[in-house]
Write a structure and sequence with these properties.
alpha+beta; Glutaredoxin; about 220 residues; Glutathione S-transferase Yfyf (Class Pi), Chain A, domain 2; 2 domains; globular; about 55% helix
Length: about 220
């Protein structure tokens, strides 16, 4: 059965692959699963029809038959568990991959999101510079720990998995800050992830949606 996901009709990220439907698109591309996309305006996100899929009125959601999921991490984990290619076979290696999915979302991403908020939405606050400095310290601490764990390895735990997919996209949220580039191994890690053909296809599809809505040329991966 072909699943349907939801995405922004005109993404606030302006088509640079940071909206969270990108995580689901990339996962589906990695496993070779065709899918449909239901594009929603900001107003439609708050309508009862969409809130029946996600009570918090956000994207992405995932529908396949009677199954309806929200939250990108839950959706990617479901895809990885029901298709070959994004998780190792059952056993310790698979459990570690799932662990790293949660680490990406619960340990690495929160200070990065806080950094985004401080950078873009608190510019007019008198305490913004002090707050941003504290947030950057927390981000640097997480990146240092991650770089130490990754070392010279290509991926987090052997083969590429859904954990790397999530971690790469979390780290991409720091683009333009220079923070990832302070760790050359992490910068190379992100480059490896975004060079994957499945990522490239997912990025182009999402970028084309924004380009059509905005009347601009699509961004390139």
């Amino acid at each position: 059965m072909k699943p349907t996901i939801t995405a922004f009709a005109c993404s606030p990220d302006e088509g640079v692959g940071l909206a969270r439907d990108m995580r689901v698109r990339w996962a589906l591309e990695e496993v070779g699963q065709p899918y449909d996309v239901r594009l929603l305006s900001m107003a439609a996100l708050k309508e009862p029809e969409h809130r029946a899929r996600n009570p918090f009125g956000s994207i992405p959601t995932y529908e396949a038959g009677d199954l309806v999921l929200f939250k990108s991490g839950a959706i990617v984990l479901h895809i990885a568990q029901t298709h070959a290619g994004l998780l190792p076979p059952p056993g310790p290696e698979r459990e570690r991959a799932v662990m790293w999915i949660f680490a990406a979302l619960n340990t690495v991403e929160p200070p990065i999101v806080e950094h985004e908020i401080a950078t873009f939405f608190e510019r007019d606050k008198p305490w913004r510079d002090e707050h941003l400095a504290m947030v950057e310290e927390r981000v640097r601490s997480r990146l240092s720990d991650l770089a130490h764990r990754l070392g010279d390895a290509a991926w987090l735990d052997g083969r590429f998995s859904a954990a790397d997919l999530m971690m790469v996209l979390v780290l991409r949220r720091l683009e333009g800050s220079g923070l990832v580039e302070e760790h050359p191994t992490l910068a190379a890690y992100v480059e490896r992830g975004t060079a994957r053909p499945a990522y490239q296809r997912a990025f182009r599809d999402q970028a084309e949606v924004y380009a059509r809505a905005a009347g601009t040329a699509p961004n390139q991966p």
